[in-house]
Amino acid sequence: MRMMLILALVLTASTARADEVGDAHKLALQGRDSYWNCLAREYIRPDAKVMSEQDFTANIASACPSERQNFRVTLLDYLSLQFPDNEAGANLTTANHAIELAQKDIVTAFVHRKGAPN
């Protein structure tokens, strides 16, 4: 009887943990999407068309601070649940790298747009 009770508690705990990881993953994806949408708004701004690549890159680096921070925090939360043995610094590096890649992707799209014939 005790063994059944222990097994039931373990299964309940593992299910709750899976739900927690799943919820954190959804929040991280929402944070990513919010950040990307904000970067996209910067990309389509009318004044962006006349910016140099250097100016646009600087603009993107400082754009969307609240969305960027929300993405960083939700991704860190997910990573800490998904990989509990990772050091916090490693997860922060991963989150910051994801942000850098998003910025790089939007700048690359900008450069291609600028170089495309009208």
Quote the beta fraction.
under 5%
Major sheet characteristics: none
- Kindly provide the radius of gyration, computed on alpha-carbon positions and rounded to a whole number of angstroms: 20 Å
Instruction: Figure out the total of helices.
Output: 4
What's the end-to-end separation, in Å? 76 Å
Per DSSP E runs of 2 or more residues, the count of β-strands stands at 0
Mean pLDDT: 87
Principal-axes geometry comes out as: elongated
Uncertain segments are 7-11
Question: How does the helix and strand content classify structurally?
Answer: mainly alpha
Helix content: over 70%
* SSE ordering: HHHH
* Domain tally: 1
Observed structural traits:
118 residues; 84% helix; mainly alpha
Describe the structure.
Helix 1 (2-44) runs parallel beside helix 4 (88-115) and helix 2 (53-62) runs antiparallel to helix 4. This protein has 118 residues and is mainly α. The chain has four helices and no strands. Helices cover 84% and strands 0% of the residues. It has helices at 2-44, 53-62, 65-82, 88-115. It starts with a helix and ends with a helix. It has one domain (17-115).
